[in-house]
C-alpha cells in the first residue's frame, strides 16, 4: 500500500516529507526505488519533486536528469520514479480538482 503524503486537496500545498534510506542504511545495497504519484491532476496542473539537504529546513527542486526542467507530476505523467537517498516531498500547485500525493517503494507497492 502506498504512503499518503498529502490528502486530496485543491489548494497549493507541500506534501509530508518522505525519507529514502541510503545504500549504507540498506545493508550495503542501493537505495530502494521510489515512485511518487499525484492523483487527479488536469490540464497544466503539476506537482514538483523537491529534496531537502538540511533535514527539512529548506527545499530545492529536483531536476530530471540532464533536462533543465524540474521533475514534475502532471496530467500526462502522474508519476516520478527515483533511485536516490534523501528527504523528498512533492510541492503541489493549486488544482481545480482534489489531488492527493503518494509514495511507494518496492518494499511497499
Strand content: 35-45%
Kindly state the number of beta strands: 10
**Total domain units:** 1
Radius of gyration: 14 Å
Provide the residue-averaged pLDDT.
89
Shape: globular
- How many DSSP helices? 0
Regions with little confidence, pLDDT below 50 for 5+ residues: none
Sheet bearing the most strands, described?
6 strands, antiparallel
Order of helices and strands: EEEEEEEEEE
Main structural class = mainly beta
Distance between the amino and carboxyl termini = 5 Å
Helix content: under 10%
Can you offer a commentary on this structure?
The chain has 109 residues and is mainly β. The protein has one domain (14-93). Helix content is 0%, strand content 44%. The chain contains no helices and ten strands. The chain has strands spanning 3-9, 13-14, 18-20, 34-39, 46-52, 60-61, 72-74, 79-82, 86-92, 99-105. The strands form two sheets. Strands 2, 3, 5, 6, 7 and 9 form a six-stranded antiparallel sheet that branches. A hairpin with a 7-residue loop joins strand 5 (46-52) and strand 6 (60-61). The chain is globular, with a radius of gyration of 14 Å. The mean pLDDT is 89.
Amino acid at each position: 500500500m502506498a504512503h499518503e503524503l498529502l490528502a486530496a486537496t485543491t489548494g497549493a500545498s507541500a506534501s509530508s516529507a518522505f525519507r529514502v534510506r541510503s545504500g549504507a542504511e540498506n545493508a550495503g545495497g542501493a537505495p530502494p526505488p521510489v515512485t511518487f504519484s499525484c492523483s487527479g491532476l488536469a490540464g497544466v496542473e503539476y506537482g514538483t519533486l523537491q529534496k531537502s539537504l538540511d533535514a527539512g529546513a529548506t527545499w530545492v527542486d529536483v531536476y530530471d536528469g540532464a533536462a533543465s526542467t524540474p521533475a514534475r507530476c502532471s496530467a500526462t505523467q502522474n508519476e516520478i520514479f527515483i533511485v536516490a537517498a534523501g528527504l523528498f516531498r512533492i510541492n503541489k500547485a493549486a488544482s481545480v480538482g482534489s489531488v492527493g500525493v503518494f509514495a511507494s517503494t518496492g518494499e511497499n507497492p
